[in-house]
Amino acid sequence: MFDRPIASFDIETIPDPDLGRRLTAIEGTDAEVIHEMVRLRLEETGGRSEYPQLPWHRVVSVCVTTLEPSTGAVSVRELGGAAMDERSHVEGFFALASRAPRLVSWNGGSFDLPVLRYRAMVLGVVAGDFYRVDGEREANNYVSRRHDLHVDVMDALSSFGASARAGLDTMCGVLSLPGKGFLERPIYDHVLEGDGRVAEYCKLDTVQTLLVFLSWARHCGRISPADFDRSVDGVRAAIATLPYAGWRAIESALAGWPRWA
Predict the structure, then answer these.
(1) pTM tops 0.85, yes or no
(2) Which residues have a Cβ under 8 Å from the Cβ of 50 and sit 6 or more positions away?
(3) Which candidate among 19, 69, 119, 130 keeps its CA 20 to 30 Å from the CA of 40?
(4) Phi, psi of 5 (to 5 degrees)
(5) What is the domain range of residue 84?
(6) Whole-number Å distance between alpha carbons of 196 and 150
(7) CATH number for the domain harbouring residue 102
């Protein structure tokens, strides 16, 4: 499992105002259209969800935390440009995947990857390499559910749906990891205000997912305790380079981690 770079990724999305205008005839600014889409979706679902079906999501951030297993080096970065430049985010993800890292996600099989596929089709993005099942990809690829070139950690921990799936924030609490932070309101409100913290929020999810993945891999015997410690040190070193002030609290929280029960 640690025979290649590990790329823990996450996406952030908002309801697509362009689809709101074109398919539901909602008029107004992006903010007006999105808030009306949210209102209609809450009405449609009896208050259970404010977000639309997956093809209606617009990608506003894709981030990755990459671990090089041979050295323990870690980097945390955003793959696209400005929030509303969706093409840069989608193309950035498939460019990452073209280097064939082991992708790691939380609920990525049910949310992130389907959204990226739908939006790539909307944008006309070609990503044939992602779907390769020939050559070395015949034995392990991103398409077959039983392969592990993409590891959806949430899915794996729930025995692929045999038990109830836990949320990432729940697992972070159980493992004494820092929980979700940086944002106070729905993603779409922060994006509409031009708040750059959306990318930091997305990066935090990738860091959390990588640390949960490493904890699971240690439990499974896929990574030695020494390599686990080296990888966690790499995460701490990478976080120390991030300029946003909110990361300082994450640094402090990870200073003594892990804390086994």
Answers:
(1) yes
(2) 38, 41, 42, 186
(3) 119
(4) -60, 145
(5) 6-16+52-254
(6) 28
(7) 3.30.420.10
Residue at token pair 């025979």:
3
- DSSP letter for each residue of the chain: --SS-EEEEEEEEEE-HHHHHHHH---S-HHHHHHHHHHHHHHHTTTS-SS--GGGEEEEEEEEEEEETTTTEEEEEESSSSTT-HHHHHHHHHHHHTT--EEEESSIIIIIHHHHHHHHHHHT---GGGG--SGGGGTS-SS-TT--SEEEHHHHHTTTTTSPPPPHHHHHHHTT---S-S-SS-HHHHHHTT-THHHHHHHHHHHHHHHHHHHHHHHHTSS-HHHHHHHHHHHHHHHHT--STTHHHHHHHHTT-----
* Domain presence at residue 132: yes
User: How far is it, in rounded angstroms, from Cα 215 to Cα 138?
Assistant: 29
Q: Residues 210-218: what's their mean pLDDT?
A: 98
Convert the pLDDT of each residue in 83-125 to its tens digit: 999 999 999 999 999 999 999 999 999 999 999 999 999 999 9
CA distance 38 to 52: 8
Residue 30 lies in a domain: no
* pLDDT of the residue at 261: 67
Backbone φ, ψ for residue 94 (5° rounding)? -70, -25
Tokens standing for 45? 């679902």
Number of domains, the chain: 1
Q: Which two tokens stand for residue 241?
A: 């380079």
Quickly state the pLDDT bin for 260 (edges 50, 70, 90): confident
Which tokens belong to 2?
A: 């640690």
**What average pLDDT does this structure show over 20-33?**
97
d(CA 19, CA 60): 15
Q: Which residue has the tokens 């995460």?
A: 235
